[in-house]
């Protein structure tokens, strides 16, 4: 049997082979004509559907400057983390001051495509978005109205909607009646149940409110290292916390037992922080997996943060007998939550 002669692979034959082989796409192009924007206190989060018109994450930038997008399930996420006046220009963010009796700041930015190759085969994209905040809300670390955020979709195939995402304290487990702010806890009530609700009013039914994490601090800063965890990865941090509903519809609820920080003054203030996000139930599985199968290890935050302020006071009934000697009360770490308040009862972030 004669040997088989192998012919060398020429450049022409190699090019012909490339024409025959299928080209693997890095991502599946989607018609993505909308952006979901969450205007949280001091943070703006913009989400566009992943692979919009074929663009990959590394080809999209915030303000044409920062390639800082994050690939979250079903979406590309871009975050403006600081809205304080000293940092208005973060990644091309533009701001406009509107004077008047109630002065406001409007922040503008956009998510744009950028292809440096010789030919462009995808439809260019430019997702422009904005958020409006009261000026007093952004200066001097004001925290009085950080229980409310605004979530909206700007036109597109989903239509247009605007929702107020708010966090509230309720009277009982039926979650029918919200308490008025400011929230005051008598020292004699430490250990009692506190009911928290986070709700998005006006949100399309396809979107769900998800509580990721909640914790309390003795300062208004969510990053304070002195903290007490209540909810970790959507699961109760201990048996004093109960999550009733989460990621099922436009509101999520939970309760915890009130507590205090020691060595504090008579009138103390505690801040509850909740990290929340809005999930598209038609594109994603929003409900977390059972807590028994997940770790309570804290992870980096990916949602926006809502903050509620609680004051702890020693009432007349608890000022004398039988109370803890020497100190009059401490701080109650209540709920740091991301979402649920009745707009009629809170100062809102206006859009």
From TrEMBL:
Stored InterPro entries: ZP-C, ZP-C_dom, ZP_chr, ZP_dom
Keywords on record: Disulfide bond, Glycoprotein, Signal
GO molecular function, one term: extracellular matrix structural constituent
Pfam families: Zona_pellucida
Superkingdom of this protein's organism: Eukaryota
Any single GO BP term: otolith development
Signal peptide as annotated in the record: 1-26
ZP domain: residues covered: 38-298
Stored PANTHER family: BETA-TECTORIN, ENDOGLIN/TGF-BETA RECEPTOR TYPE III
This protein's name: ZP domain-containing protein
Species of the source: Oryzias javanicus
